[in-house]
Specification:
This protein is mainly alpha-helical and 123 residues long. The protein has one domain. 78% of the residues lie in helices and 0% in strands. It has 5 helices and no strands. The mean pLDDT is 86. Keywords: Membrane, Transmembrane, Transmembrane helix.
């Protein structure tokens, strides 16, 4: 597996750990803002940023300043800019949709599992 694939798996694991932390720490429901949400947001941004670096090194694509900056502040938008600058639009669209479908899909599955009582009651 390529380095970027390992980084993506790390991102999936990071999101999973965040969901588990939410389930264990906020079993009765979270407050409006939690530290876990802040940590998850920052971590997702870093994983996407590092994924782009690994992908650029692997494919020989140069990352633009705009893509770097927007990935830091708005990861999906910066990621889209990065992909469309270095790939044909069909390939960029496919990769963008698959990448973020995995992220959002995992978050939704975890949320539904928690809502359905996927955490033992002794927590």
């Amino acid at each position: 597996m390529a380095r970027r694939d390992w980084i993506y798996l790390g991102l999936m694991g990071f999101i999973t750990l965040g969901l588990v932390a939410d389930a264990l720490l906020w079993a009765t429901g979270p407050p409006v803002t939690t530290w876990n949400a802040v940590i998850q947001s920052f971590g997702i941004m870093l994983f996407v940023y590092f994924w782009e670096i690994a992908d650029a090194n692997q494919s020989g694509v140069r990352r633009s300043s705009v893509a770097r900056l927007l990935t830091f502040f708005l990861p999906p938008i910066g990621h889209a800019i990065y992909l469309y600058q270095g790939r044909p639009w069909q390939q960029a669209t496919k990769l963008f949709l698959l990448f973020w479908a995995g992220v959002v899909g995992l978050a939704l599955v975890g949320t539904f599992a928690l809502a359905a009582g996927g955490v033992p009651s002794d927590y």
